[in-house]
Amino acid sequence: MNGGQFVREARRRAGLTQLQLARRVGLAQPTVARIESGKAAASFERIVDLVRATGFDLDIRVVPLDEDGLALAEQNLRRSPDERLDLLLATSELMGAAGSAPDEGTGG
Question: pTM of the entire structure?
Answer without folding.
Answer: 0.61
